[in-house]
């Protein structure tokens, strides 16, 4: 949508906003007036190159981790050891690969689900709606696949990266939230910062095909001559050519405007501006997003100081994996020596010492000692213990352990590392949800339709906009303007999916509560006191339901007692029926007399049987008197 752009082209960008530069003689005036021009772009590129230099070691480590993941680590092993120098076969076992696969399975079993809680009573309805709507938004972004890709990235390289932005092109121009996984090699930050939000600038680069760029921005045809910056890339299996591809650079930075810190954004190629918020007066004052944060979330596995990135399982476990490959290579070669028939030819009784010293010509050998096998097994066990991928965590239990509770305890203890990693991912997911809420607050002006899961799994279709979470004017108190209140929410993350063991445990706990009478409203107080000392998922919600049942039960008894009193006075013939209903209710609805249920009679402490409540005894006496004398006068 741009036009002749000697200074810069303002056009439709990834955020969906557009602008047009003036033409003709006004272009020269516009060139001087625009805050972001060629000079600023050169400055951005210089900063990007500095950030790239500071990230060099992290880039090398990430590229190496990908090679280890593809079992193409022999080059690095050859550089550090003598393995494979004879040009023969080299082992590349998959022990480390199996660790990452198992950890990824653990992560996907604990796929997160948000529960949004209000901080004020008046925001309860909005919090409930957001708890239903945000999973729908994430589902439309195929977030489960994004989450899976980020987990692979996190486990291999140590860090998963998400990008949460507003895309105007979605929903046929209506716009919606976009959540995607980002290649860590294409993101650049200020060296030395641990929190990405503390970086002075944040860059994100992407290679785009020249034809597509010219098709979208026709004015670039004469400007795309050389690539001023190219990001590092992985060693792909396919031959990936960068010919006729140019780097599109996005830069985020903060600037204080009228006392408020705003998030500014610029998208450019070389010395050509594609979009800049500072070049639009309205956006320059407000910024790109109202939340004022860089729209990226970093999820590190093993955090390190001075970097938002962390170490992955490959960084921690590649040393024992190298030892395993070295030993296994030697074992296989030794086995081949033993299986290959060789002939010793005597020449005047002498021996060729050069051939004897050459291990690649194994004509003289001895059987392999068992100690070497033990060394390799110990190294394998070291890798398992270091990564937490022990035999117990994979379902293999040591001989002699047969009790189900003991097996469950061992498996639960072996999963501590995976649960810790999952909690870190939940913290990152919580930030993603916060970004989604803020984008909904800013952009959901028009009502949108959602299909949500209602009570007991029923489908419901609702309409939602951001009117309920916009800043709300508080009016005047005692002549003082109270300003605006912005609805705020707390986010609690839980696992959407549970493994089979967790489901069985939860179901057995519910059956035990039922058999012990926890759901009997007569025992509400005792059940609540017992549950207060317990700890399990959903405890608060269950205690609330039991408390409500106990309260309703007490009110029911009061109303029935009132009905019995009125019946004795005005409808004596109905008093006996009502008294029987009171008796049945007190007995737990079994149809017998009070105290006939096993749960009720079993409620004794120290051998003292629980007696029939006084209210029931009085009700029975009055009912009997009403039936025999025709009621009280």
Q: How is this structure best described in words?
A:
The protein has helices at residues 26-33, 38-54, 56-69, 74-80, 95-109, 124-140, 143-157, 210-216, 281-286, 313-339, 353-357, 370-387, 404-414, 416-443, 500-515, 524-532, 539-570, 572-586, 598-601, 614-629, and strands at 112-118, 159-167, 176-181, 187-189, 201-209, 245-257, 260-269, 272-276, 296-300, 302-303, 310-311, 448-453, 459-464, 472-473, 476-477, 480-481, 484-485, 489-495. It has 633 residues and is α+β, with helices and mostly antiparallel strands. The strands form seven sheets. The chain has a five-stranded antiparallel β-sheet with strand order 4-5-6-7-8. A three-stranded antiparallel β-sheet has the order 3-2-9. Helix 5 packs antiparallel against helix 10 and helix 17 packs antiparallel against helix 18 (572-586). The protein starts with 25 loop residues before the first helix and ends with a helix. Mean pLDDT is 80; it is low at 1-31, 590-610 and 627-633.
